[in-house]
Amino acid sequence: MTRAFRHGRGLAAAALACVFVAAQTQQQTPTPAQQPAADKNAPETNTKDEPVTFQTRVNLVMVPVVVRDSKGKAIGTFHQEDFQLFDKGKLQTITKFSVEKASQPAAMEVHAPETEKPTQDAPPPNLPDRFIAYMFDDVHIQFGDLARVRDAAARHMANELKATDRAAIYTTSGQNTLEFTDDREKLHETLALLRPRPIARSTTQECPDISYYMADLLVNHNDPTAVQAATMETIACMSLDPTDPNTAKTAAQLAQAASYRALTAGQQETRVALAVLKDVIRRMSAMPGQRTIVLASPGFITPFDEVTDKADVMDRAIRAKVIINTLDARGLYTDTYDITKQTYDSNALRYLMQYDREAARAQADVLAELAAGTGGSFIENSNDFDGGYKRLATAPEYFYLLGFSPQNLKLDGSFHALKVVVKPSSGLSLSARRGYYAPRHLSNAEETAKQEIEEALFSREEMHDLPVELHTQFFKSSDDDARLTVVAGVSLRPIKFRKENGRNHNTLTIVSGLFDRNGNFVSAVTKKLEMRLLDERLERWFRTGITVKTSFDVKPGTYMVRLVVRDEEGQMISAENGAVEIP
């Protein structure tokens, strides 16, 4: 058997079979004459999982902000009063403010079984503290661009990743992916398999050749200039008789049909890219350390129908503290017409060139917006992909989270432009979320409370509101099987109890989570301890504290252990983590 460690944070929300509780409003303690007689035969403790009624809360909009000096270094010395935040030009009251610092490796103690004495030369396990998801937009990218960013990523992984880093490879097509690992050989093998994989677009030039951007103008906005250009191009590429009075009508119908095909294909590919990005954020939310996505993409169009999904991506990333850094895979480019494309009508050429320029800028805009909206960086118009990866794989040393509750918010789904000002601003550059979309209904209060607790859990930093100690024990039943027990010791002295019916009421939620050496979630258990204590028992537990044990059946290996304890009445949270190595 062994006993081990204290310290930490991190947990897998999707895998938790647990109930998170919200704090109740503390009631005034009745005088002794008012208190009903206590039923001394009623149980003093009970363990069960039941939802609690939550009070309605207003929506909170979180705005990540990065402030850099003239040399590009992030600054973390500003205070709440140094910022002003405007929603549609109206000054807002900042109700939540924090300075986030890039995660540092947490100190962890590792203990061998008591029958074995660890040697002084035995190094501690290289437990992960930084998780980097290398994401490649193979749905929209061209082969030449993909080859360049892929090779740069391979060099970065070989030369820049540390022993405590874990890397994963994801693609927007969902093919050739690799979950978080420190196996450099597997990373390079997966990179070598990457290829452009368009989902719905044709790889050959059609007649007429309608882009997704132009199709949106034609179908959704009935843009007369786009209709005219597409009609002229159709007449020319199909060699229709321009003297026939029916030709223009026929060409317009053919162009409209081609536009619907292009629109459907573009919508599908954009939705797939955003859905995969959301899924990567969900996976990374369980990682116990710094979390960064590096998205290499030529960008993609997100018309009005897709803005809700794009906003949801940023909201999820902010809640999970996942930074999205973006790299324009086109490198150094000019937004001129693609001369490799054949144009059949010289009169339509200037319109097609205009739409290509607008589309190129719109593609870059979505990359810039994803980065700014999550506290990340965007690199464009540069062929220095090696330098780009070196910069983007590292989160800014400091960023700020500003929160505000919009006043008189209309639940209409409309866009609200945001502006953040920092004073003094001389010589500084500021990157901040550009805006948000109003919800169509208020957030469920219970879900809001759950998210707030998850945000606390999915962090590496420690929290010590409650006096909590974390210990572990393990017993090997065979060479291949072991039972790991997580022991939570909690002192009740600083905890507030609510007096009711002669008893002292409070509830503790105790969450124990287990992660493998790569930070991947293994298992978690939540225990909810309802305390309805008589004065005699409370006084005794004040002296001794309480102990709660949670056991896991595991295989030998290195594990990170996570313990989170929260009380209902005082809304206090403590978070401890550690590591254990089972030989």
What do these coordinates show?
This protein is α+β, with helices and mostly antiparallel strands. The chain has 3 domains: 150 residues, C2 domain (Immunoglobulin-like); 84 residues, no CATH class; 215 residues, Rossmann fold. Helix content is 27%, strand content 28%. The protein contains 10 helices and 24 strands. Helix 1 runs antiparallel to helix 2 and helix 3 packs across helix 5. The N terminus is likely disordered.
Mean pLDDT: 80
State the helix count.
10
Integer tally of domains: 3
Biggest sheet overview? 7 strands, antiparallel
Termini gap = 12 Å
Our Rg estimate from Cα atoms comes to 29 Å
| Unreliable stretches covering 5 or more consecutive residues | 1-36, 48-58, 104-124
How many β-strands, per DSSP?
Answer: 24
Strand content: 25-35%
Q: What is the CATH class designation of the largest domain?
A: Alpha Beta
- Looking at the overall shape, the CATH architecture of the largest domain is 3-Layer(aba) Sandwich
Fraction in helix: 25-40%
CATH domain fold name of the largest domain: Rossmann fold
- In terms of structural class, how would the helical and strand content be classed? alpha+beta
- Output the CATH homologous superfamily of the largest domain: von Willebrand factor, type A domain
Silhouette: elongated
